[in-house]
Amino acid sequence: MTEKLGPLLRGFRKQAGLTQEQLAERSGVSVSTIRRLENDRAFDHRVGTVHLLADALALGPEDHRRLAAALGRTEEAPAPGPPPPGPPPPDTPPAGRATPPARPRPGAAGRNGGLTDAADELAREIRRRWRREEEQRRVLDPFPLPVRWQDAPPGLTDHEANVQRLEPGAVPGVVDLSGDLRNAAEVYRRISSGRLVVLGRAGSGKSVLAIRFVLDLLSERGDLDPVPVIFTLGEWDPTAASLRDWLTSRLLRDHPHLARRVPSGGTLAAALVDADLVLPVLDGFDEIAEGLRCAALDALNAASLPLVLTSRRPEFAEAVDAAGTPLVWAAAIELTDLTVEDLADYLPRTVRTHGRATGGTDAGPGGASAGADGPTGVWDAVLAELRSARTAAGAHLAKVLSTPLMVILARTMYSDSRDAAPGELLDDRRFPTEHALEEHLLAGFVPTLYRRRAPERAVGGGPAGGADRDPEHARRWLGFLAHHLVRLDRDRHDLAWWRLADSLRLSTRTALVVLVSALCVAGAEWSAGLFLAEFGMAETLLQGALMGVVAGVAFGSVYAFMAGVGGMVFEPTRVRLRWPRANGTAGRRSIRTFVDRFVTVLLGGVILGTGCASALTLERAVFFGAPLADWSAVRVTLVNMPVFGLVFGLAGGLVFAFLAVFESPLDVASAATPTSLLALNRATVTRQVVLLVPLLSLAVAFGGRLVVIVLQPLLGPLGWSSADAVFIGVTGGVGGTLSYALGFTAWGQWLVFSRFWLPLTGRLPWDVTAFLDDAYRRGVLRRTGAVYQFRHVRLQHHLGDAFRRQQPGYAPARFAAPPPVPTDRPGEG
User: Fold this and answer.
1) Helix (H) or strand (E) holding 678
2) How does residue 81 score in pLDDT terms, banded at 50, 70 and 90?
3) Interatomic CA distance for residues 818 and 487, integer angstroms
């Protein structure tokens, strides 16, 4: 008769002298799960949970069998011993290795209702996102290119006993890490530490392996399993942010719904990371700046969380050598090259277009026609030459096509196009070296994609915008975007719409902010003057122009200070106005924001007030003939400077700072895309404008009257009437709010720089949003949450370098040189 699970588990726990809390800490299973098991109130238990509890209780083989039998799954949980042939179950050690102490399953002890729901929602979104990526890149069409691996050199992996997390004195067994793309998740489960390093050369398929690994883990994810999330490491500065903080910031950017607050005051993203409910798949260690890789490896070693890391081998080996240690507890594998037989299986099946030329004039004697086999003969001559290896051209091509990245580029150019024959790849006069072949494939990738119509939109069903773009224009615009991502210290990979303004010099951006602010304030001044009929037409026009120039200089000065000296990036806000909660953390944050905004706007107000006083004196000299050198004119100007400065500085500072108290993160139900985040920020700025115009107008008007009343006894008659206060309030409220919206918000920067100036100067098309979406659907770009990325970093480097070489005064030393052999990105091969 089978024993009941609850009493049996309770008896084993008491026999071991452990409380439920102590057992939870030792096993990694949550207290609530142990309590439900002991009370027989839990259903659909996982075999892995029983293994964790049995190992934590140090049960012998017979007691282990009794506990598994009580679960009712004896056939799925055999007693420890030699496992049956075939792949081992996820929680069973492979044959030949010592059974290690139980590794706490990430997140098991930290789950609660809220985190469980958040993790499940994140898992669903991650699965949808990477399935779309695989479909769009046709990774499964006609079948995935075989990505295989071998064990990495011993110096790049930790001791086997450490990888297996064995107790002192235990003898490590042999862990079989052999496999291919189809069983990456299964191989990972054999690693007790949960840490794996994937090494490979450029384009070898590291990132597509990461995608398939994530999807496989998610397809079998259980209640206690963390959510695998791919993070692009190239954007991490380990000296500025810890690993967990950086992971949290990436989650918040790409999954805005995780900005919701938990009872502790933090965000859901931070709670998931802290509870180890996120399994980081860190893609592209080699993309971290060279001077930061050693610090990055130290930071990864300081963190104990399970992870998967991909990198090119030379960069990782250099970091290991500099740090004096590999990634602790980590096993390591290295991807191997594709073979000619792999190409022979794959390339013919990618040709579906009949009536194609088969090999071109350079195809050679092996160039068979399509004939009865249809279009598959397109690659016959090339494959025959690769098999025979008779010529240097064939040897070069075989070497180039040994990576999935180059195979995908060749497929795009030749299998998917009617106009090109792959036989030209064997022309050793055109392509005398491997590098020449690679450059040819990279250079032809974009034109090939843009010579055919883009796919239909995934949502909406309408025709794709910009489907017939000129390939040369598209290449130039993409080249500018790739060039924009270059930094003097390293390359960037995240193409964020709110950072496109960074492609312009600070002086150019400041000049545009001056111009836009001047037009906003001048327009408000002219409209108010004509509506209120305060002055004549000529005086109104001159006053509006003078005030516009003054306001433009003031706003431009503040912008230059914030963006230049302060290094501020105007990122998209996701806030709403609501009554602040009684939360100490939120209160401190609001106070800091209040002070920062008040000081910044006060500075701008003082500059604006000084300019307005001078402009008013100049206006009086033009219309009333008042001499500028007269002491009375100078005195009035000196008096008006602090008055205007206090009016604009105090009113604007208080209004903008006061709003900080009522701002709170906006709950977003769905994961962000670049276009959805842009629309969200546009709506946020619109609401801010609607609220700020009346508040700022009233603050300037009433603040002006109050300042006059307070200072008039000290400074004498100031000549400010109620009508003057209303006029200044309206112009200041409307003009100041519009200047702020266009010059100091992410959406305003996008509108002024990316939608107007960059297209006006020919660096981007007028429909930038449609162009980026079109490039994404064609397969040039990929989406990672709220940002785009070039699908291949090698393509990014190639396009950026080609763009720079076409510019007058090109100086290579001004730009960071790309790595000799750049790495691949998610979706490569």
Assistant:
1) helix 674-715
2) very low
3) 11
